[in-house]
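quick one, 494 residues, struct below
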Amino acid sequence: MEQKKTAVILIGAGIMSATIGLLLKELNPDITITVLEKLDRIGEESSNAWNNAGTGHSSFCELNYTPELENGQVDVTKALKIAASFESSKELWAYFVKEKNILSPSSFINKVPHISYVWGDDDVRFLKKRYDALIKYPLFENMQYTRDNELMNSWMPLVMKGRPANTPMAATKMDIGTDIDFGALTNAMINHLATLDDVSVHLDHEVRDLEKQENGLWRVSVEDLKQETGHLLLADFVFIGSGGGTLPLLQKSNIDEAEGYGGFPVSGQWLKCNNKQVIEQHHAKVYGKAAVGSPPMSVPHLDTRIINGEKELLFGPYAGFSTKFLKYGSYWDLPASIEFENVIPMLSAGYHNMPLTGYLIEQAMQSPEDRFEALKAYLPTANPDDWELVIAGQRVQVIKKDRDYGGVLEFGTEIVSAADGSLAALLGASPGASTSVKVMLDVLRICFPDQMQTDSWINKLKQMIPSYGKSFIDDRQLCLDTRAATGKILFQDK
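---
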């Protein structure tokens, strides 16, 4: 069987592969890249707009990014990192919009205020502490906090309508929050990538196996699902960015660094509003606080979405358990991922996360009436006739070895790479796509360390991402200048 050579193979045609592919082509226009996607469409799994929350994750409203410590303080470390990462993402997207004319910004990113809304004395106290901790930093300096019912009514009239006025309530608001159609963004980026010299994008192509050769190259076995033919590709570097499909392929690579990793799949559902009059009365992403003991993905939110140019209103997510790693995957995905090296970490993680197990069982057993009651906590006047259940995507949470606990469940994203930098894989879920630029820059630092030190690469990176090498966390002027520059391009700010 003929073996074709390419410098880079990207497995999966989602936002991560799109990002690293375009970065590499900008940094090295002569590089050869092959993109392999199992499905017949681009960005159809995690990147698809209906399969994710569409939130430009910037920690403006996501309360799970700012946990309250045992000493009562609110830890903002994660929130600052995510907020800074999102600014970098906007910079690169702005570059592609302005310099490469890849797509119209309104087709994928729109301003939607981000609101945190809580009720009850304990949560009100928490939100005030969170606000006080964040407002000190330039990234959050325009955050508003209120306990005034009239002001909250102006922010989110549907949420406040029919709510008892004597209920202890509080909210924060960031007007520069965003809604993002990551599916539209991914399609535009991959389609542009496909037009560049020495780049080929293959849909309906499934990677069956990959093996490191003695000469240092990776041999990747691929099946053309339409033609029912097999192919062999050789590559210097392989990136596995196939969402829930990453773990099985990482295991097949047999790199030492993959040992012990497992995955815990979580399925998602939304309630979708089908009443245009109701949809038009809400314009915000309203995030609440998860119940005590509940996992981070249980945080409910009422979201304005712009999908395919149409305004939508979604509530959720409602989680459940499925053994599939992908929405279009197999029920054998989880059993097939269990190996001798990861069985103890997976069992240990399960034992130490019983609240998650209970939560998923509870969610899976919910009746339509139960789901609607959860909605009414955010929308007291909701009419069940205005809402329908839609299936979202699958998320595979990372399980990894832990010296103390045997195995731990990680909520977030994690890069696993070979020691020689010839292969990298991305595991995990939220905030994923929102931080794709920061994450892919990390992959480049790990896998292309020498090139990342060269003047040519550094200068090009600064052209694409002007804040490259600087920190948003304490630099107010940098934050102001960057938001002004990206705002003019992405939102036509004056």
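The radius of gyration is 22 Å.
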